[in-house]
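Sample A.
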Amino acid sequence: MYFSEGLISEVTLMKSKQYVYVITIIFILSLIPLYIIGKYNHPSVDDYYYGVETAKVYRDTGSVSQVISTSFDEMKNTYNDWQGNFAAIFLMRLQPAVFGESAYVLSSVILISAFVAAMLAFIYNFLRKWFDAGRQASIITALAVTFCAMQFTIMPSDSFYWYNGSVYYTFFFSLALFLLTLVTVMIKSKAMPARIIAGIFAVPLAFIIGGGNYATSLVTVLILITLVILMIVKKNKSVIPLVLITCSIGVSFALSILAPGNAIRQEAVGGSHGVIKSIICSFAYGGYSIASSTLAPVLILFIMLIPLLYRIAKRSSLSFKHPVLMLLFTFCLFCSQGTPVFYAQGLRMPYRMMNIINFSYYIFMIFNLVYMLGYIGKKYGDSLVLCKFARFFEMKHERFVFIMSCTIIFAISCVGLCKVSEGENGGADFSNMPLSVSATYSLINGDAKQYDKECRERAEYLSDTEEKGVTLAPLSVTPAPIFHTDITADPLHWKNAHLALFYGKDWVKLSNK
């Protein structure tokens, strides 16, 4: 009987909203070191290349409007002679360091804040409006999933600290989540003003996303087309504005794909597998990504969420009739993200791309867990085994033991992921730590501060010296998660060329140790 009414009642689930408060506090605390270490962040490689013209304009004029105008002009040039992702290119040329080295701190603030807000907004509204989940259950799930997605990011620097790579992938991934949140509100909200406002904002946002990275653009287009078909079948009145939104992103996506510069870049870079091989590689990588993303702590998280997700599924009005078909369909959507990269670059998958596939893994898992649990609940909800399972979670002591046991195992499994090796000075070197722990470690041991000092000295010297050929000392520290990469001892290396171009030098290189 208890099971048919929901796995966990409102009283047992949220006494005085204590779980929400505890998880919210933990989540906020986890963000603090991520923002703090961002103040020691500095530009890297492509930040310099894409900031050359805009930085020069700002140095000459001090005008922000002139910088924006220059970024737009350079976007058009790049569209014609290198790549078609016009919206992303426009933002790349506005990397904060063009306004001064110290302004680069804004990169992490923008990127982290956008990602956190997008993940929380999407998961919360997705569960609330599509599955009729309770407010507190939606908040807990959104916070827990976003926490794990950030803590176990494959390459954190490429998503939250290196502006050029992050704004191209993670930022546009965040924009896509905002778009799908607006679409959800437009379709499911009962308040007409909210639906109208969501639809109005969604159209231009969709156009912007279509001009971003191809992986996010493609999967967003496929999701919107799916929703259009679903709304037509259900004869939902939202179908017309939804078609407009889909057309908006479709047009910009087509403009991006058909850019003259894409052919030039493809000829220069090479490596294309062709359509069929790219699709096969996408499915192979999709399966690998799911397996590699299911780390021990992540698995523990999903186990902890099962009672909560079951309750969400049980209270939903959806029928959950086709779990296998839904799993296959969402897996295809998930895998589609890799196709553009494999088509354009062959088997080369950049970390920044891996990151957004890893982020979407959490959404893929939550959706399929709810759907599968909904199927089980609708079909076997009154079975003796499930009823006993339900009663277990109705008992305060047993529920507390379950939560605390999972929490302890989660913490232990996080420790188990860490790697300890011998550092250059003979001391212990820690790596592969959860993101917040990694940031805290770099702050405590002074590496972040030392990195900031050395990067500032470099920037000042490059700005002040009249030398056309500059030799720099190697960095003594490379703190995670803010360090991305450095130049080399080869003055002809492309990384060196970008830095030299930004500061108006003939060449720049590192001295030999």
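Sample B.
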Amino acid sequence: MNKKITKIISLAENLIGTPYHYGASTSDQTSFDCSSFIQYIFKTGAEIELPRSAILQAGDEQGQEIDPSQPENFQPGDLLFMRGSQGHYRDEFFNDRPIDIGHVALFIGNDEIIHSAGGEKNKVIKESAKQFYKKINFVKRFII
């Protein structure tokens, strides 16, 4: 596995349990929302600057789009985007395709993700990605 991906995953694992807070800043690692968590681990672990929101991360010119209907092709380090309870939806980033994105998670392999989850979970967690496979509508690979 690529050293940058290993570092990102290790950093993400070390942040498990960090509280969720919608709109959290990346400069304060005492809490994260889904996109600030991703922004922080990519900047700190791989020196990759990503935009602040999930929709902007998905629409960023960096990275390679991966077919979301084929989870067997997901690789550690891929970002999985899906509709969320909060978020922003802008079709113009995706050649006018109607893609709703309000949440992002880090795929770590073995059908697992790490993400900053709101709601009842309300913290950074590691869990099975399988429950999300039907909800994922966009996947991006930033490290090849």
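B remarks: Residues 8 and 45 are 5 Å apart (CA to CA). The domain at 3-141 is CATH 3.90.1720.10 (endopeptidase fold (from Nostoc punctiforme)).
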